[in-house]
Amino acid sequence: MLGDGTGSKGNKVESLSTKLKEKQERLEQILADLAAEAAKGNPVVVEGKKDEAALSELGVTGLTFTVKTGGKSFLDAASEIESRNPAAVILLLDFDWRGRQGMAKMRQNLERARIKTDTRFWRDLKAMVGHDIQSVESLPAYLETLRQKTE
Which domains does the chain have, with CATH numbers? Predict the structure, then answer.
């Protein structure tokens, strides 16, 4: 029937809304899992202070290390992390080319120091939002946009 809102256009809008809602829920679950791991004492390694603030805004608290502040090299950052003697760290650098390069360098430096690196949150987030945003600091605004679109 025409004009009753049940046509194919209505289904497409509903389908898009459903997909956005699923994406929002999945993103919130990844962030909740990340927060739980950080709360267990697993430090999170990010690029800078804005990334650190974004994680805090998203409810991820606990020890964080920044690798691109104060003119530190990746080796300096790895040495700082090693001095705290964690069994494992969560690597969560940006999703762009430089972030990928940094992930590889940090992973190599930390594993050389016999510190386990957890990259699953980075991989999951990159797969989900990597085409839309390039940095960890953009996650709060991205999540808020998803929430607004699904209201």
Answer: 11-149 (3.40.1360.10)
